[in-house]
Every structure is written in C-alpha cells, then in structure tokens.
Amino acid sequence: MTHNPAAVELDEVSAGYGDRLALADVSLRVLPGSLLAVVGPNGAGKSTLLKVMAGLLRPVSGRLEVLGQPVGKAARRVAYLPQAEAVDWQFPVAVADVVMMGRYPLIGIGRRPTSIDRDHVQQALETVRMTAFRGRQIGALSGGQRRRVFLARALAAEPDLFLLDEPVTGVDATTQEDLMDVLEAQARAGRTVVASTHDLLCAAQRFHEAAFINGRVIATGPAHLVLDQRLLAQTYGGHVLILQGEGGTALALDDAHHHDQAPGHESHFHDGARG
Amino acid sequence: MNLLDVLTGPLAYGFVQRGLLAGLMVGVVCAVMGTFVVLKGLAFIGDAVSHAAFPGLVIAFMLGVPLFLGGSIAAVGTALAIGVVSRHSGLRFDTTVGVLFAGTFAFGVLLLSTIKAYTGDLLGYLLGNILGITQGDLVQLAVLGTVVLVVIAVLRKELLYATFDPLGAAASGLRVGALEYLLLALLGVTIVVGIQAVGIILVVAMLVTPAATAQLLVTRFDQLTYLAIALSVVSVIGGLYTSFYWNVASGAMIVLFETGLFALALVLGPRTGLLHWYRGRRHMTSPLTDTDVMPGSAT
Lengths: 275, 299
Description:
By secondary structure, chain A is an alpha/beta fold.
C-alpha cells in the first residue's frame, strides 16, 4: 500500500453481522508504537473494528493488513482481549493458568510449557501486580483484577500488537492508572496498542491518538481531540454532555456510563457488578 | 463370605471380567470427554447424538455390516451436522437440536419396525448390555477409546484455551472452529463407545455426571479431569458389583452410582453444599471481606 509499514492498515473496510453493516468504508492507518483509543457511542462498531483487526470477523469488503501481512497470518504476534462479557468466569482455571494461555500459541501443539514460559508468566503477573493471586480461581477475582490478569495474558504472549476491547471499562481508578501505565510502556517500546473505550477522559489523558467511530470513521488525530466539542457532537450525536469545570477543565460524559438501565441488547459491567 | 470373596468371586466369570474391563474403559473415556461437555454446555448435544446413533445401528444391522460402524458414522455425522447448524441456523440452537434428534430417532424406530427378523440385539442398544460384551467388542472399544484419549491429550492446551476464551484463542492463531468440530467428532466417537456400556438413553449420564460432580468439588481443570475419572471408575466398579449380586440392570446401576455421588457432592460440596450454606449463615454476622467472595458470586 505505502512504503512506510503500518501496524494495522484498513482500506475501505466494511464489516457486520448477517445483513447489518456495523462498519462502512473504514480506512485507517495505525503506526507502530501508537497508543490509539477507539471512541464512539454504543453500537458504533468499536468492538467490530477490533474483531476485524484481530481476524475474528471477516470484512464484507475492503483491504486489511495487520503487521504487514494479510489479517490472520501474523496472529501469533497479536494479543486480543475480549470484552469481559465474552468470557465464562466460572471456568475452572486459576490466574496463572489463564496467563499461561497467552504462551500456548508459542509453545505449540503437543508440547508442555517450559521454565521459560513459566518465567514469562511470572514476569507478566508482576507487571500487572497480580503475583499474589496466581493460584486463585479466575471467577473469585474482582472485575478490575480480572482485567489485570487478561492484560498479563496478553503480555505473556509477547505480541507486537495489542487489540483490547474495553480494557479499562468498569475498573477502579487505581487499576485504570496501572493498566494504562503498562500499555504506555508497551507503546514506548515500539509495540502498538489499539483499545476501545467508553471513558473519554481516560482516552484524552492517557492515550496518544484517538479514532472517532460511529459506523464509519468520523475523525482520527491526537488524543486531546477527544474533548473537542464539535467532534464529540458529530460522533455521539446529541448524547454527550460537556461540563465546563473550574480552570477550563472540560469533563465529557458519554451516555454509556450514565444510565439507570442499560439498553436491552447490551450489558454493562462496572467493576464486576452489572449496571 | 469375606470381603475378598465378594470382590474376586464375580471375576471368576469371563463375562464379568469383560464387562468390568469395558466399563472401566468407557468410564475413563466418557469422564475425560465429559469435562469438555460440561464446560462447553454440550450435554443436550450429547443426548441428541446418542439418539441419532440409533438409525445408524439399525441400518448397519439391515446391511449386515458391523453395528459399531453404522453407529459411529451416524453419531459423528450428527455431531458435525449440529456444529454446522449451530453456526448457520437462525433458530435457537436447542430448538434445532431438539427437532433433529427426535426426528433421527423416530427414523431409527421406523426402520426397526420394518425388520421381520429377530432384532433383540438392536433393542439391547437402547439400554446397553455391558455384561454381554464380546472379545471383539472389547477390541473395538479399546481402539476407539484410545483414539479419543490420544487426540485430547495432544490438543489439551488448545482445547482448554478455545473452550475458556474462544475469541482470544482464535485471535492468537488457534483454529478454534476446527477444534470445535474436532471436539464434536470426538463426542460422537465417545458416545458410540459409551452406548456399549449403558445404552443410548443413559450414555449422556456417563458423559455429564462425573464431570458435573467434580465441578462441584474442585476449581482447577486438571483436578476436574482426574476427579471425574476417579468418580467414573468408582461408579463403574460399584455399579457392576451391585448389579451382579442383586441381579439388576448393570447400566442403570452404574448411572445410579454416579447420580448418587453427584447428590452427595451437592449436599456436602464446599461451594454448593449444606455445609457451605450453614457456614454462610454463620458468616452473616460478620461482614464479608473481598477474599471471602466465592466463585459464582462475582458476576
């Protein structure tokens, strides 16, 4: 496509489920070392975009390259973190087992983990500060702890591209800061991070770039644009509230985080509790 | 009669030796497969596949080919067909499976009613006859059972990952779709193996009950597998001996042993049991701390 290799490159990509298109004509270039927030209202296609990049959903049309190869070819260098709802938390696995799963594709079929794999698991657990919980069943953890463990699994896979679906949704402030610190370090080391988020303030403050999505790409640019009123209105329609605080701080609240009842087709999780 | 005589006495009979050996093989294979059946929620599919094996058995009988072969083709074929339907049908999954399995079983019954000759063998498959197992059956059981165990042993990590988090596993390059079809095919083979022991109607219990019991007691995948195997083996031995001494149906006895152990685990288990409930009531006087949160209460 171009001589400068992108970590992810989408060219006029459309994708959806059945007859319904969730994304239309998306063109996007994500450069290596990016820390990109994908923002947009519910149903805007944020998860769909990440699934397309992860090779989990085949586009209806368009061209797509991941880490310089057709999607799926470089899957071992990609770590995908599903939304919390997509995982069976009652599953009989302990924290360390889950993190070890990140090593499975590297270990290969029919082989057992070696001490090198166990070292990577140990390191990843230390990075997310979950070493003390290594023997705990995954369902016994809080929502924030589960996100830490899944990020550790992604780290253990030593990927060049992180695709994270709502990694900081519904977690406490400390966890959010810790997880963002980890992701920032990964981006600084030249790895690429693409994460969807509902938290506009976090997107503005902790990410480097942002892509505004609502069925199509509304805009891409530096992350501070997230607080641009005109762009927000364009992306979210009428469903955004901007509070002008003292000292000119703008606080943007999107509809997804302030609801009495989630819409029927969606589940929201706020630190483990359905809300 | 002392205890040793009670245990060794029945083994003087060749049919008991063969039955015990067959039961142990079936028990182990079903327990290992059962852990995936329970974790993936395939119990209903298992029931459907075992019923769908019936027309395969009848057709094999009519054609004069080994019944095992007919049953295997029908069971694996149905399991894979269910996999396809589950991905592409607009209907609710259990609805489609319900329609399919009653239909195929009815077809088997229809075929059976057209056979003028003696069909006692075939009816035996409905309830199984583990004490009537022949040397040839044993060899077939051993071959099919070994295939299932070896495939699961080789792909254990990958099957575990794909079952726990299909999206994450697929994104990392594991062929989750292929693994799912493979698991369904293995389920088909396992069911044909299990039908030998307890019959079409009860085979689902051999698959589900030991793993379900283990799930009440342990929280690690390895422990789950080993405990399910142990529970299965105990039930097979217990069931066979009691059926021998009381002269009652062996398949039913094995399943009732498994069910009894499940009931015991339900009552005494650390998370679901009455003891837990009792402790939970005592706990209510002191505030729950984060570390007291049990699996199951967090979502």
